[in-house]
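Two records follow; treat each independently.
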Amino acid sequence: MTDRIETITGAKRATSFPWLPGLLLCVAVGAAARVLARFTGAVPDVLIALASGIALANLVRLPESVRPGIRFVLNKVLRTAIILLGAGLTLGAIARLGGATLWLVLICVCVAVSLGLLLARVARLPGAIGTLIGAGTAICGGTAILAIGPLIEAADEEIAYAVTTIFTFNIIALVIYPLVGHRLSLSQIAFGSWDGTAVNDTSVVVATGYVYGPLAGATATVVKLTRTLLLVPLAFLLGTAHAARSRDGTRPQLSPRTLLRSVPWFVFGFAGMALLNSTGAIPHPLSSALTAIAGFLIVVVLAAVGLNVNVAKIRRMGLRPLGIGLGLALVMAVVSFSLVKFLRIG
C-alpha cells in the first residue's frame, strides 16, 4: 500500500512539472558544451551545444517526455536569458546605437515582408506559406510565424513548414555569419547590427552575436529586440488585410486580446533591467553575475534549438518553399549588410 502511495505521489510530481525532464536534458547538454569548449579553441560553446542537440535528436530516439521541457527552454528560458542580459547594459549604450540603427530595422522589415510575398507569388507557393516565411524573416522567426499564423488562417502544416524553413537558415547563419564577419573585418557594432537585422530567431541572433564578441552580442540583442517590437503592428496589418479579403463568415476576429497575446512582453523586462543598471540599482558584481548566468542560459537554449531539429522532416518537406525561404534570407543578408555600410553603423 505504501509503495502504491509513493508511486502515485511520484506520478503527480512528474505531471506537475512536465517540463522538468526536457529542461534537465538541455541543461546537461549545455553544461557539457561549456566543458568541451575549454578544449576546442575557436569552436564556441553555443555551436557545440547546437551540434550536440542535433546529433542527439536525430541519432537517438528521445522519449516524448522531454518534448515539453524543450519547448519550455525555447520559450521561458530564452526570455529569462534576454531579460537578464539587460542587466549588463545601460540605456546610454542602447541610445548610442542611434537613429541609423532604427532606420536599418524599419527598412529591413519592410523589404523582408514585401519580398516574401512577391517571391511566394512568383514561385506559386500554396496557401499562406509565403506570408509566414516573409513575416518570420522580417521579425522574429518562429515567434512571428506562430503569432501571425492563426490571424491569416494558416493550416498547421503551413505553420510547421514555415518554422522549419526559417529554422534551417538559423542553423546556417550561426555557423557562417561569424566567419564572414571576421573575413570582412567587421567591427563588433557593425556585426551586431547586421546579425540583429538579418538573422531570424532571437536565440540564434543572440548566440551568433556572442560568438563574434561581447559587444556584438549586446548590440545584436538590442537591435533584435527593437525589431521584435514591430511584431504587433505587423500582426495587425496582415490580419486586417486577410480579414478584408475573406468573403465568408469564418474570418478570424482581430480582438484586443488576440493582439495582446502577440506583444513581446519580455522586451520590456530587458529594458527594465537596463534601466535599473543605468541608475546604479544593480551593483557591479551582481550585474556581472546575472550576465554570466544569461550567457549560460543562451547555451542551454541552443541545446534546445538543436534538440528540436528534425533532419528527416526537413528533407521530406520538399525543396521549393525551402529554397524560397533560404533565398529570401540570403537577399536579406545582403540588403542588411549593404545598409549597415551605407548608414555607416559601427
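The next record belongs to a different protein.
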Amino acid sequence: MAFRDRLPVTERTPNPTLLEGNTPLVPSVSIGPSLGVELFFKWEGANPTGSFKDRGMVVAVARALEAGARGVICASTGNTAASAAAYAARAGLRCVVLLPEGAVAAGKLAQARMHGAWVALVPGGFDRALDLVRRSAQSLGLAVVNSINPDRLEGQKTAAFEILDALPRAPDIVALPVGNAGNITAYWRGFCEVLPQGRPALWGFQAEGAAPLVRGHPITEPKTVATAIRIGNPASWQGALGAVRESGGRIGAVSDDEILSSQRRLATEEGLFAEPASAAAVAGLLRAAREGLLPRGALVVAVLTGHGLKDPDVAERAPQPVRIEPTVDAVASLLR
C-alpha cells in the first residue's frame, strides 16, 4: 500500500495489497498534438483488476479487516465489484455484490464471479442497488466499500500524488470521467494536500444520457454505452461540484458517439485500449477544443479509469476478421 503516511492507516492495519497504483503517465503521440496541448494519459487500466478502483479498495478492505467486519458489500456497475471481490479474496473476507440488472459489462461480472463473490442482480438501476447495500450492511455485519466509504476516497487521492511526482510541474487541467463522482472528489483532495497553490483545474465529463451533475437533478433511468458511469444520482455529488468550483474547472457532457469515437482513437492512435467510460475524458477534451475552450499549449492529463477488456462487447463494433487464402498475395491485399 503506497503513501501509507498519507492514508488513514497505522502499523497495526493489515495490508492486503495487490501492488496497486504506480500506474504509468503515458505521453500522447497523436491526440495531444492534434489539439495543440501537451497531453498525458494516466493509465489506470494498469491496476491489478484493471481499474482505478483498486487504489481505494485496498484501504477500504484493510480497514474493514482491522475493524473485524464479517465481510464487505457493494453496489456496482462493474469495476467496484471486480475490485471489491479481488481484495476481499486477498484479505480472506466474504464479499457480497449487488448489481443493477442488465447494466454490467461481461468482463467486470466475470472478475467478481471468479474471485468468489456472492453476486446478485437487483431490478432497477445502480441507485436502487446502493440503497439496498446501505440498508443491509449494518444488520449483516458487512462493511460498505462503495465510494460513500471515506477510506475509498483516501486511497484514490494517491493518483494525484503520482501525477505530481511524474511531471515537472502541476498540470493546468486534469480531465476525468464522472459517474458516482468519487474519483474527481478524491483527486481534488490529493492535489489540495500537496499543493498550497497552482492546483490544476478539474474537468469532469459525464455521458449525455447519464448527466445529473450537468442537468442539475437526478436521472431516474440513466442511459449510456459507458456502463461504468451509468449512474443517475451520484453519491459524491456535492464533493464533485465542490472540486470543480474550487479548482476553476468545469462539468460537461458528451454523447455516446463521441465516447466510442474517442475510444477508437485511443486504441488506434495511442495504443491504449480503454473502456468507454474512460474515453469520456478524452471526448470531453475534444469537444472543448472544438468549442474553443481548451487553451493551446496547456499541460493536460486525461485519466483513463479502466481497461477496455472489461467491456468486450463494445469491441464487437471494431472491424471483424476476414477470411483469406493462405498466400502472400492475399496477405498483401490486406495492406491495400
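Discussion point: The CA atoms of residues 26 and 41 lie 5 Å apart. How would you locate this feature using only the C-alpha cell line?
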